[in-house]
Amino acid sequence: MQVLVTGCAGFLGSHLCERLLSDGHHITGVDALTDSYDPQWKLRNLDRLCASERFDFVHAEVLKLKQRLVDDAQLIFHLAARPGVRTSWGPEFQHYLRHNVLTTQRLLERATLSQTPKRIVFASSSSVYGDTPVERVTEEHPTNPVSPYGITKLAGEQLCSVYANESCLEVITLRLFTVYGPRQRPDMAFHRLIQAALTGSKFALFGDGRQQRDFTFVQDVVEALTLAGHVPAHSDTFNVAGGGRVSMNQAIALVEEISGCRINVERQAPQSGDVRNTGADLSKSRAVLGYSPRVKLRDGLRAQIESMAERVRAASCA
Ligand SMILES: NC(=O)c1ccc[n+]([C@@H]2O[C@H](COP(=O)([O-])OP(=O)(O)OC[C@H]3O[C@@H](n4cnc5c(N)ncnc54)[C@H](O)[C@@H]3O)[C@@H](O)[C@H]2O)c1
């Protein structure tokens, strides 16, 4: 199948493309290599992909994508976005509007103009729920984002929904809960935590450490994305999470245990836009999507620690 993946050079996009290639698909991968973090990292994420004859890389913003590339694809995974809650306040918000809202609208518009029927799988976020009184949210739970980032992801979802209602375009939205694993973005907690363990640098812990997250290993997310590619539905929304809740204090202890290194924790005030706890009810995802998280936090963290240790070793030899 001809597949278009936006954000292919990012953390999730690069893992997804590797899976799609191993499943035998032809991929056009689009990425603007934005400066949200070092573009060299994103180029490295592409190394393995570009070695395949079935992968074409287009270095471009989705806003400027040629209609032909959208026409050719039967399935589109839309992952390109400006991620990150804390940096979505202040002047940076303009990037969130451009990359998360305008870009999504333009892609949907192009997809509906196309003559060939297609499906878009949209990477949304647990941030659309905001702070919730329940331990595990279902997809029916009211959305109430508490960060500008969450608002842009909700706007993306709503755009997907209106375009699906008004056209033949099929749109599946996945609400991803904190994803971790090899190649995780450098702004994310586990990346900073493991970096601190491996190098002795300080780890800034925001808040009291008792905040809980439903962490999801990247290969489980890749599985959910591929399932969303063919689930029988015109338009639907699913939670994608790891299935267990862990506090940041427990996560710190686990990284120390696996790495065998003490972490120098620097406690800082809670950050605006960070929710207290996240937790997903996966009943619908299990029943309809066929999704079931497989990777235990301990195993996933071990994989991320090993991959980051390799990078640290390579950097110290360079
Ligand atoms: N990582 C998580 O925990 C998580 C959780 C919830 C949702 N998500 C969503 O998953 C998607 C991927 O996240 P990630 O962690 O891999 O982020 P990432 O920053 O590693 O990847 C996003 C990629 O998109 C590219 N990009 C951004 N705007 C673009 C544009 N307008 N045109 C072309 N390319 C563009 C960037 O250069 C980057 O390579 C995002 O939509 C994010 O909102 C991620």
What does this structure look like?
The structure is a single chain. It contains ten helices and 13 strands. The protein has 318 residues and is of the alpha/beta class. It has a domain at 2-179 and 218-241 and 280-294: NAD(P)-binding Rossmann-like Domain (Rossmann fold), CATH 3.40.50.720. The chain has a seven-stranded parallel beta sheet with strand order 3-2-1-4-5-6-11, sandwiched between helices. Strands 7-10 form a two-stranded parallel ribbon. The longest helix is centred in the N-terminal third of the chain and has 21 residues, at 93-113. It starts with a strand and ends with a helix. It binds nicotinamide-adenine-dinucleotide (NAD). Nicotinamide-adenine-dinucleotide is lined by residues 6-7, 9-13, 30-34, 36, 42, 61-62, 79-81, 83, 99, 103, 123, 125, 153, 176, 178-179, 185.
Looking at the structure, what is the overall shape?
globular
The helix-strand sequence is EHEHEHEHEHEEHEEEHEEHEHH
Number of helices, where a helix is a run of at least 4 consecutive DSSP H or I residues: 10
Average pLDDT level: 95
* Beta fraction: 15-25%
> How do the strands line up in the largest sheet?
3-2-1-4-5-6-11
Q: Which ligands occur here?
A: nicotinamide-adenine-dinucleotide
Stated plainly, the CATH topology of the domain at 2-179 and 218-241 and 280-294 is called: Rossmann fold
Oligomer state of the chains in this structure: single chain
Gap between N and C termini, in Å? 40 Å
Structural class of the helices, strands and pairings?
alpha/beta
Low-confidence segments, ≥5 residues, pLDDT <50? none
Global Rg: 19 Å
CATH superfamily of the domain at 2-179 and 218-241 and 280-294: NAD(P)-binding Rossmann-like Domain
CATH architecture grouping of the domain at 2-179 and 218-241 and 280-294: 3-Layer(aba) Sandwich
Which CATH C-level class of the domain at 2-179 and 218-241 and 280-294 is it? Answer: Alpha Beta
